[in-house]
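Q: Hi! First time doing this. I have a protein sequence and I read that you can turn it into a structure. Is that right? Here it is:
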Amino acid sequence: MAASDDLFLNPDDFEKEDGEPGESWKPVKQHAKALKRKSIEILNLAITINSLLPETEDAEHARHWLMENASKIPAKISGAMAVDDVYSIVMESAVVIKVAVCELRNAVWNCHIMHDMDEKYVHVMRNEIEEFRKLFVEWVKCFDKENDLPDEWHLFNDPSTFPEDNEPFDPNSFFDDEDDQ
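A: Yes, that's right. Below is the predicted 3D structure, encoded as structure tokens:
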């Protein structure tokens, strides 16, 4: 399969405003927008790499691994942008994004080693991932840790704010308590 222009995604096609209208000025939104553009560039690079793989059964796993991770990144950024005001939810998305990027880097290396793909594509992807990582760090710095819901898995927020484990969690009562203070 040869890469052609109709296979590539245009970052401009994804420029709709996520979240509440009029919030595009927020730093978290600005960083997410740049991050999403870069993720689409990475996805296009993955499409190119995918097209270079041989049409063999052995390469099918590499093709799937490559595209699964590359396509997961912009989707998770969009999801995080839609709920950027709940810290634990955007952190969950950030972790999935980081894991997908690391898996993508590994998939590209696998394509080079197992399927004789030119090493220049490994270097190009690594450079793109490094640019993405820098944007990602700036994005994560903008997350509002103060605006959150208790996470029953106790991962991303202060466990001292959680209800006791034997109490049922009611997110409405969590916010009601804050209003009383």
